[in-house]
Amino acid sequence: MSFVQPALDRIPEPYRSKAIQHRELLKFAAVGAITWFIDTGVVYTVKLTVLGEKPLTARLLGVLIATIASYILNREWSFRTRGGRQRHHEAALFFAISALGIGVTLLPQAISLYALDLRVPHVGPLTQAIANFITGQILGVLLAMGFRFWAIRRFVFPDDLDEAEIHSL
What we know:
Elements: H1 5-9, H2 15-21, H3 23-47, H4 55-78, E1 82-83, H5 87-115, H6 125-156, E2 159-160, H7 163-167
Antiparallel strand pairs: 1-2
């Protein structure tokens, strides 16, 4: 039994059946929230120290570190009941999809900075910071999350495992 089950027991019907039906998505979203904090922590730590003038480099570093955490958490929790590939193929596909996801994450912020010129000296530092947060930390992350959920279920963990396979993991 999962540590999530007691929490599910407290959810009233019909919400409980919906939560159970969409448990992979909910777990994926929880992992996304955890890795969002990892990403955000890394981005702002390096932006406020060594990469102040390089917001996209800071974003890339945050996404890379969060992606490693995401693989581990998704493999061991969100998609624990799915498989279908050898671990090295699974990991390679996960990181390839995540690389595409990095592009999806960076795209809104790059458009904001370079197509819309929402960057210093064209706008003030506060405007750039707000635009970077909205386009990078919110819009980019949400777009990439939707893409990754679809692609990871479709390509990385395509098969539902039976109970015997799950318990042998």
